[in-house]
Amino acid sequence: MSDLTAPPRTRPQWQRRFVQSLSPWSFGALLIAAIVLLPILSVVWIALTPGDNIWPHLISTTLPRYLTNTAILMGCVGLLSGLVGTGAAWLISRYTFPFSRWLEWLLLLPLAIPAYVGAYALVDMFEYAGPVQTGLRQMMGWTTSRDYWFPQIRSIGSAVVVLTAALYPYVYLLARAAFREQSAASEEVARSLGAGHWGRFARVGLPLARPAIAAGIAIVMMETVNDFGAVDYFAVQTLTTGIFSVWLESGNAAGAAQIASVVLVLVIFLVGLEKSSRRRIRFFNLSIRHRPVDRITLRGLPAMIATALCFFPFALGFLLPASVILSHALGRAERWADPALLSALFNTVTVGGIAAVVTVLAGVFMVYGVRLSGRKLPRILLPLTTIGYAAPGAVLGVGLLIPLAALDHRVADAIELVTGVDVGLLLTGSATALVLAYTVRFFAIAQGAADAAMGRVSPSLPMAARSLGRTQGQVLGQVYYPLIRGSIASALLLVFVDCVKELPATLLLRPFNYNTLATRVHDQASLENLGDASPAAILVILVGLAAVGFLARANR
Questions:
Q1: How many percent of the chain have pLDDT more than 70?
Q2: What are the distances in angstroms from CA 82 to CA 87, 199, 478?
């Protein structure tokens, strides 16, 4: 006879952990992390197991040139962006001068201009047949280029200028926030000890803001490594252009993966630098009340100099490229009705919209799954999934296309064997590979927004919902979603904008005869046909302006 009063048998601890690991939320989180990390692991595997090892040939021929040019670009763009962004942030946060309120937000607008669009505009304006040199020849009576000296436009120096003008806002945003957080007490102490304008900046403001500035410079350098359109247009051979050359021109995927592995090493170093800076980004105010620094009003010549210094980056990074592209776009109205442009617009909105929704849903699912599992492995993988945002699009293209193409052929062969129908390439022959690339590339944005938003929700709310019988899915939909939907909408916008501007991954993974706005701009500008490229460029800029407007609103 059984003992009816005996307590129910409980499962051993290892069984409970196993069952917990098989829950849909934790299993889904691990699956998403695996998909996001797959391209990076694929690049490393292909580089280490090449069928035709050209690594010695690369080292003895082109790799030193690629690496040298990339290092020069990273160093120069990082240094100039640090100087411009930090200087503008200091002037805006500490002084009042003519148009300073306007310039505070105008300095963000270059974020709306992709670097490759800035490169096309700069060449169009300053090349031999452009309006600047043509005007100089007419005004001075020069007849040929032998009569005068003008800097070479298609050069590494021009690439540095264009990339700096496009990327300095990253440093400006972080530095301005750091300067604003500083207390007026430290400024007053420095002023009472006789420190002037430069002394207060060098001895007080800069040391406290140095971690934020270093983080901004690290982001700028990662974006410099990722760039393809601008450096390709200026004929500067970098590691990113090397991936395209070795793969598409030489037909050696393993060699492209080996170059991509070098890029990954640089990116991991920069991510480590950025993370190290972020750990020290906070400082503590010892005063009971934090009082912001009062701005000093500049007058006369100092005010004019401050206005000019802040206006110049905005003019070079936004006003010049936007005016050049707009003048071409308005020249012939029929270009806006070009079926190829409308097709590129439809493809961009469709693929970018699908990728944004998939990325944000995956980010929310993974963050929620990690929170529910409470296990070490998902928590370790969560920050690792952000590496996709730092990895250049060309690297992700290599890591995705090769394994997807192999899987595609096997799936197509299996379907044909069973049904007798040749379905073609389902993944790489359609925009599916692009959606996956965008998801991996910008997953960090969605994941970061979801993690921050869920972290602001009090744990008592989901606990109360669970105690009332709500399932885990109902808690997400009925408790979390109403509280985090603002952050989710922001992440959707930012991911969509980045998908619209993404060029390297799109060039590698797009199906045959499939264009987005970014690839149409690149294709037409590469043929020196800036007139047909300008409408697509204007649309890209307008999408970027929407994101900058949101960013400015969020950073008030």
A1: 86
A2: 8, 19, 45
